[in-house]
Amino acid sequence: MFSDNQIFAAPLAGITDRPFRRIVREFSKNSPMVTEMISCHSIVGAHKNCLRNFDNYSDEGNVGAQIFGADVHLMAEAAKILENQGAKWIDINMGCPVPKVATRAGAGAFLMRDHKLAGRIMAAVVGAVKIPVSIKTRLGWDFENQDWRDLIDIAADSGVKFATLHGRTRAQLYVGPAVLPNVADAPIPIIANGDIKTADDVSRALGMGYCGAMIGRGMLGRPWVLAEINGFAGPKNVGDVVLQHLQYAIEYYGESTAVPMFRKHAAWYSAGMPNSSEFRIKVNQITDSKVLEVAIKDFWSII
Asked: Which among 130, 138, 160, 275 is placed 20 to 30 Å from 117, CA to CA?
């Protein structure tokens, strides 16, 4: 229905880690995916307590690495490191609204308030790598300051190849409906983001000048949604996907970290199914991977 490079998997903090991306890739062989946002300070400092600093993307297909920060030099250095680790493109986060990023760190959505700094960061990152660079931003800081187009123009002048636009302001966080403006006259391709969950949502975005769409929270419990939007069928048994995802998480994090981290995924996978509330309560008390496997098999009737 749509081309392989039009339906993106969004960066979601605490969700789109390597195990999750492996599951998405099993359904969507060529769809572009973006990593969780990575701190430029963390990756340049090679902080050992953050596993994603050491991910190798060479076997992950079309994956872009998203970085955030306010230090021009460190952002450029982080981009070089991620290029060497196999990222297919670098995405600069200019839209994260959470206080620890957008206010205390002066990064993410804060760069919508400081276009000069944003321009220096974009130019430095573009100049540091040979792979494409993109940005992900929002409509603006708040309702009175929806200056997204100014930032897009700066991005184009800086050599940024494309942008993703989330249809909310920073002040909205993730509350209220996303409202996407028409971007038909934008100087670079723009990907639509925010409340996009179906093929019809994507078609509406394309009709407003967007070149593609990025799916975020629509992937929760449905890592096959990118494939469905492209006209492919979902899994025959969701439970098999859940077990495989759990195994990938254990391989990556180790059992003691993976099991409590995986509880949220188990809950999302079970959403809308009979007895899902009881299942979530049960799962939230489990600390052993074998016990969790049994609970998953029982819930999805896997013999």
From this structure: 130
